[in-house]
Amino acid sequence: MRALILDGTESPLKLFSVRLGRLIDRTGGFDRASLEHFIFPPSGHFTDKSQQVVTMAMHGIIFELGFPRNRAASFQKPGYLKDSATMISLPDYDIFQSQPIVAVLVDGYGKEYRGHSTLKQKRDSRHSQIAELDT
Predict the structure, then answer these.
(1) Which of 54, 87, 96, 100 has the fewest CB atoms within 10 Å, measured from its CB?
(2) How far is CA 62 from each of CA 10, 56, 81, 92, rounded to the nearest angstrom?
């Protein structure tokens, strides 16, 4: 993929846009370590501009793929992969700015609140405590 992006003539970035960001939580509810362990599987949604976006997160990084590709002006913002670019700047991205992530967090909290799921403590082989979802 890197070779295709660096070769501006056949770059897949002509078909879709890719935006990356470093997950943060401005409310202070999730610390850096929690966000680095947060995994959000690919989830699609439509923006108000009829663009389909696939969002995923892992290792403290959020990835957004937009179909069709954003306008060229968007690529001046930090976090967008650009044709033939050799470096990228990862801007901070508040976890609560992502519609699909917020929807899943609210749904999970609602299930916990209604008693449809419980967290119990389990010890691993090194005797540290790990929260395990018991459904």
Answers:
(1) 87
(2) 25, 6, 13, 10
At residue 132, what are phi and psi to the nearest 5 degrees? -125, 135
Decide: helix, strand or coil at residue 19.
strand
Contact present, 3 and 55 (Cβ < 8 Å): no
pLDDT, tens digit, for every residue of 1-13? 566 556 656 777 7
Report pLDDT for 51. 86
User: Which tokens is 94 given?
Assistant: 């508040």
Stretch (H or E) spanning 32: helix 32-37
Enter the pTM of the model. Answer: 0.72
Confidence of residue 21 (pLDDT cuts 50, 70, 90): very high
The candidate with the shortest Cα–Cα distance to 24, out of 33, 11, 14, is: 33
Closest Cα partner for 70 from 98, 89, 51, 83? 51
Q: Residue 123: beta bridge partners? A: 129
